[in-house]
Automatic annotation (TrEMBL):
Protein name stated in the entry: 39S ribosomal protein L13, mitochondrial
GO cellular component: mitochondrial large ribosomal subunit
Pfam families associated with the record: Ribosomal_L13
Keywords, sorted A to Z: Ribonucleoprotein, Ribosomal protein
Phylogenetic lineage: Eukaryota, Metazoa, Ecdysozoa, Arthropoda, Hexapoda
PANTHER family, per the entry: LARGE RIBOSOMAL SUBUNIT PROTEIN UL13M, RIBOSOMAL PROTEIN L13
Family: Belongs to the universal ribosomal protein uL13 family.
GO biological process: negative regulation of translation; translation
Any GO MF annotation of the entry: structural constituent of ribosome
């Protein structure tokens, strides 16, 4: 076997480390993308019973954006296992308690039918902000591209760019705004 083929084979079977930024991303669309890498579906050796998935580091989970009024309408169910232990929690309440939980539940639910999803979830590393330990960042070799472009806030744009932005119309000097 040539050296190039040996390296290609090693790269196929090795577990890669990916990083994904959740800033202003829909957690349910992102979960499909993340679960694809966790399960190893992008690899040519993928098989549902083969554990060939990669590690995924997800940052900025507190900055997720649910569509529409999902924050107040989406409900998460939990049962303690004891009688009367059922509880329903709104998405915004769950996110307020633990900013990583909505993303974790979205990824877990996106892997329905995966018989090994409990073990696959162990390769998911969630962080509420962009502070990741150095021992984890040393392993990261790939970045997963975000599904949506993050819009730039007006207060973050420099004054020169705002002044040079073309205006739709020039108001007369005696124009009064009401």
């Amino acid at each position: 076997m040539s050296i190039a083929k040996r390296v290609q084979q090693w790269a196929t079977f090795a577990r890669q480390w990916h990083i994904y930024d959740c800033t202003w991303q829909n957690p349910f669309d992102s979960a499909k993308l993340i679960s694809r890498h966790l399960m190893g579906k992008q690899k040519p050796i993928y098989h549902p019973m083969n554990d060939c998935g990669d590690h995924v580091v997800v940052i900025n989970t507190k900055e997720i954006a649910l569509p529409g009024d999902e924050w107040i309408k989406r409900v998460y169910f939990h049962h303690t296992g004891y009688p009367g232990g059922a509880s329903w929690t709104l998405a915004w309440q769950l996110h307020e308690k633990d900013p990583k939980m909505v993303m974790q539940k979205a990824v877990y639910n996106s892997m329905k039918g995966n018989l090994q999803r409990r073990y696959t979830m162990q390769r998911l590393h969630l962080f509420a902000d962009d502070k990741v330990p150095e021992e984890i960042m040393a392993n990261v070799t790939n970045q997963i591209r975000a599904l949506r472009e993050v819009p730039q806030r007006l207060d973050m744009i420099d004054k020169e760019t705002l002044d040079n932005f073309p205006s739709i119309m020039d108001y007369p000097n005696d124009y009064i705004l009401r």
